[in-house]
Amino acid sequence: AEAAAEQLRLYRRDPDGWRDCRSTGEVAVSWRPSAEFAGNLYKGEGILPASPQNVWECIKPVAGGLRTKWDQNVKDFEVIEAISDTVSICRTTTPSACMRIISPREFVDVVVMKQYEDGTMLSAATNVEHPLCPPQPNFVRGFNYPCGCFCIPVPG
């Protein structure tokens, strides 16, 4: 979990190589080739007219949280094992897509949540196997490289 958090911090600090992909008035998405796997990294950025704490309540990875209510790509989120107050093993499921051509997925990750001195909040995750969460029937087991969300306070 700590390695995933550090990898996300490195991505955030390294501005090189990001290319604009799409943007609206609210969100900008960019990408760059990954140095870890054969594919791309994607980054979405936006400013919301809300306090960082309210935004964090919507995105933080906790069982019973708000993410399953607004994010159509997250069907369920459960904590398999709480390692500490800030680290847990979690299972996230996604619905099928494209008229069920794409099967539902499940991801088992170790997740860490952090808050930094400047008020930035982070959730970082990466794939892990856990004996209490074997692959489930009717789901394809997905694999996450280091991934997560930053919630960064903006002055004003």
TrEMBL record:
SUPFAM superfamilies noted in UniProt: Bet v1-like
Keyword Transport included in the entry's annotation: yes
Domain of life where this protein originates: Eukaryota
Pfam families xrefs: START
Transmembrane segments: none
InterPro entries: StARD5/6, START-like_dom_sf, START_lipid-bd_dom
Ranges of residues in domain START: 1-156
UniProt function note: May be involved in the intracellular transport of sterols or other lipids. May bind cholesterol or other sterols.
Protein name listed in UniProt: STAR5 protein
Organism: Peucedramus taeniatus (Olive warbler)
